[in-house]
Amino acid sequence: MPLLLTRRDVEQVLTIEDAIAAVEAGFVQLARGAVTMPQRSAIKIPGEGGLHLTMPALVSGGEAAAEAAGAALAVKVVTVFPGNPSRFGLPTTIGTLLLNDPRSGQLLAIMDAGYLTAMRTGAASGVATRHLAPATARTVGIFGAGVQARAQLLAVCAVRSIAHILVCDPQQETRDRFAAEMAARLLIAVQPTEEASVCAASDIVITASSSKTPVFDGSRLRPGTHINCVGSHSPDARELDSETVRRSRIVCDQIAARLAEDGDFMLPIREGVVGESHFQLSLGEVVAGLQPGRRSPEEITLFKSGGLAVQDAVTAAKVYERARAAGVGTEVEI
Which residues pair with 52 in a beta bridge? Predict the structure, then answer.
């Protein structure tokens, strides 16, 4: 019988280290052509401003490769309804994932995908940081103080010896609360601050905000900085200005998706600051050793993530494995 896993169940068994390992292996399989991942489908809900997204993926490619990536067949359904908090007291974004056995098609698990999505998105930045950020990086500056900002910090701190964190958010109460919580959780100093000081002091910069306009001035970036950009994901929104994009070596989770969906790249191209040839490198290629990542200590590197179904599939497979081993979840008859 399939296993029903609530958000609390997923939180109980999924660590950021497990998520990073699963996502890293998944990106390798993606680069090697061992992932089948149709473009996510989107249905707009008339009159509600809502969005219904379906994200399927199969991780395969031979027994050894499939095992290494946590062989998985999954589909995640995500709904985004901006009016939920005020109208129904519900989150804006709700996700559910079905995990199937890729050998038989049997349903293995039904799981909440809220926490899973945050962790797999953070994990992708952890993988990028491991392969692109300077080994000597000690200070992180983060724009945003929400759920994803927390996952981003957990991942970066899992792959680098971070000693100091700066957080910038327009809501002072929000950033102060975030600073206190993450300092206690990570046992690292977290300092609320203003935009101007973040880039000047940071080895790693994370943008995980809801801003539709650039959150910092790219001319202030120090040589050698690594950037993880995860907050914006629509053609009319951007967390990064064109100067940041122009100065950076760009690495994407998936090049075609980012050039079709993300204003962070689409707008600089439209302005004529860079051309599409500026975007030629995927994270999977770097992780698999097919292309170099950071090429010099002074180079600015930039990872842009919009989220891929392969990340969901391999992370869900790890959650299922851990849940079965720990006796977590409830078996249900369908």
Answer: 43, 79
Q: Which helix (H) or strand (E) covers residue 166, if one does?
A: strand 164-168
245-258 pLDDT, tens per residue?
Answer: 999 999 999 998 89
Which residues of the chain carry a pLDDT beneath 70?
61-70
Active-site residue, 304 included: no
The pTM of this model reads 0.93
Complete edge-to-edge strand list for the sheet that includes strand 164-168: 189-192, 164-168, 139-143, 204-207, 226-229, 300-304, 248-252
β 139-143/204-207 pair status: parallel
pLDDT at 233 (0 to 100): 78
Contacts of residue 8, defined as CB under 8 A and 6 or more positions apart, other chains included, come to: none
Percent composition of the chain: helix, strand, coil (DSSP 3-state, to 5): 40, 25, 35
From the candidates 76, 212, 304, 318, give the one annotated as an active-site residue: 76
Domains within the chain, CATH numbers bracketed: 3-117+309-331 (3.30.1780.10), 123-304 (3.40.50.720)
Secondary structure letter of residue 191 according to DSSP: E
Chain segment 311-330, per-residue pLDDT in tens = 999 999 999 999 999 999 99
Length of the chain: 334
Structure tokens at 30: 């993606």
